[in-house]
Amino acid sequence: MTPDFPDSAALAAEAAELQLPRFAEPEALALGRILMDLADGLGVVIDIRTPDRTLFHAALPGAAPANDRWAARKSATAFFFQDSSLAVGVRNRAKGETLEKHGLDPAQYADHGGAVPIRVTGVGVVAVATVSGLPQLDDHRLVVRALQALIAGI
């Protein structure tokens, strides 16, 4: 890992700070708008979903069709592990493991950064916000910055 690439402990601490008091459609729309503002000029896909429903989705100019697939795969990983896709990838690489070791098909799951669980205090993971189109650490950081802005505004 490079010096600016977070380790598992740093990612766990970051996740602990990203707790929301509530999250429903209005917060999903607000988060989507924050992400679009932060991603101005970047060719990314933004996806916010619950396990069974899309709450917000945008493919910004310059995003590739493959970014939709990456977003879906990273979101599935975050839901499965209840952790960011970046944290899952960091752990897997540190242990020399793959998603296949966990019985997951890499065509359906990806342990690359960009999907961050949305946790509601006292409830747990209720949704996942995902960005795809940048290097994985940049995808992850964009979502984290947006969640921090949303939390600050609630």
UniProtKB/TrEMBL annotation:
A Pfam family assignment = HbpS-like
Cited NCBIfam families: PRK02487.1-5 (NF002696)
What is this protein called in UniProt? Heme-degrading domain-containing protein
